Amino acid sequence: MQPRQPAFWLLVGLMALGTARIGWIVLQAFAQYPTGAVLAALLLTLYAIPFFLFVHRLDLFEREPATMVGAAFAWGGLVATSLALSGNHAVFDLTSKLGSPELAGRWGPALAAPPIEETLKVLGVVVLLLIARDQFDTPLDGMVYGALVGLGFQVVENFIYCMNAIELAGGDREIVPVLGVFLVRSLIGLWSHATYTAIAGYGVGYFVTRTDRSLAARTGAVVLAFALAFAAHFVWNSPLLTDAFGEGMGILLGLVLKGIPVLVLLVVMYRLARDQEATWFREATAGEVGTDVLLPDELDELMTLSRRRDVRRMVRRVRGRTAARLVDRLQHAQLDLGLACSRTGQVAERDADEARRTIRLLRVQLAEVGVVRPGAVSVRQGAD
Amino acid sequence: MSEPVVSSGVPRGFLGLDRRGWPGTVIVALIAALIALGLPLLNGLVSGDRPVPAGSTVEVGRGVTFTAADGWTLDAEQTSTRAGRVVLARGAVTYAVEAAAATRSLPEEYERMATEIRDSSGAQLFNGPGPFTTDDGLVGFVGSYGSPTSEGRFGVFQAGTTVVRVLAQGPPDAMAAGLDGVSFMTRTLRIVPP
Lengths: 384, 194
Fold this sequence. Notes:
The structure holds 2 protein chains of 2 kinds. By secondary structure, chain A is mostly helical. Chain A has 2 domains: 279 residues, no CATH class; 87 residues. Chain A has 14 helices and no strands. The C terminus of chain A is likely disordered. At the A-B interface, helix 1, helix 3 and helix 4 of A face helix 1 of B.
């Protein structure tokens, strides 16, 4: 977080407003429907946790800082939701007035939510970019922050919808309406908001990091990514396919069919982003490969989580838990080295030197427990 | 140097913050303000009144309909077919009809609505529940109330799994003038299962 950035104070101010507005809604919910509110909060927390862990692992080479992760989630859950409440309501009303109440009833969600919500959510990614530009190294960073913004939005929005469902049911029953909303919006929705904003966030990340491409190409990418997110949200909210298979399970089937293409698109984009991230890391560490701090084999092992894990497991099996922990630290130090090498400036150089020192020290410690890689120069011979 | 630069190398601008961040920040703030403030402002400027022809059938949802009386307009802002709510207006008098899933018995629905009205600022019930049957044979309970600033008539009807809540309210003088229309529209309520 950078207090010297104007966007930091914009974030602080909007989060204060969002906290007040959403906080009031949540407090009223707990006061009015305590059982339903507790159940909804519990279900949505359990729903968010695996997604958090999953997103945390998406960026293979650089863990996003906790403050940025928290800010992304908070923007989605507090800022975007509270601003969207006003915007959505206005668009619904305008659709009703300028079109008809019937049009608003049927197409209102598709006409209001995508432009309002997708814009507000992607603005969260932009704000994080303005605050901490150095945290955006590849398009994958935009995708990860976008997913977190979307997750925050989805969790809070679903909580509000759970409370609305209780009220619509007459207020007598709290558990069944909450479970119904959770099933449709959370499970069948399969993190829809997170998916949309991950796609849009990829575009933002592409625009700022792929400076090897022309401005026109980068602009096209960010516009296309946002358009895809918008279109996916529009289709999801529209009555298209919802009535095609009849009531009850038919509606659920329609929703699933609408969600699958978006998930497929997300997987494709993630693989693309991950490959770009790997290329970025290889280029960043090109000057270190073949030295005592990063062997070619070690670079290949760093490319995927599974390969890193396999190395640690093998070491643990052969040399024990202590050795495996040292290898884990060595891998992290090499990742830090790559990250430092990708940046410029005195701070980056200092971080790179620090990483090299750490790697060499860990090699000594690993040698003491019997783990020596062929090709790794002995620290006693190669030390400064 | 044209601008002061802090020791960390960040060029200071307005309020001592990094001047490079201001354009993007201002753009984000403007977009957010447009959505959260501009759209509601625009909504407030657009009138929501739409004339409803006398004798036309108004659909509320869940198979509920009624016939519009002469001189009433549809309040498009308050109306939501998705939520099963239609609001008509005649001057200062509003006539709201809501259709929802029935979760309690008719007397309990009436009592719930009466309680809501009683709990609203200073409202006193004049009478009710009184039985009421529409032209189509739909049976319900009706009541009336008064508060420091308005009078109203309300009623609940039920058929099958659908309950209909009706509320007409406005300043006393306006209510008197609109009472015939309110009674007419309530008599024409129908519930046709979808």
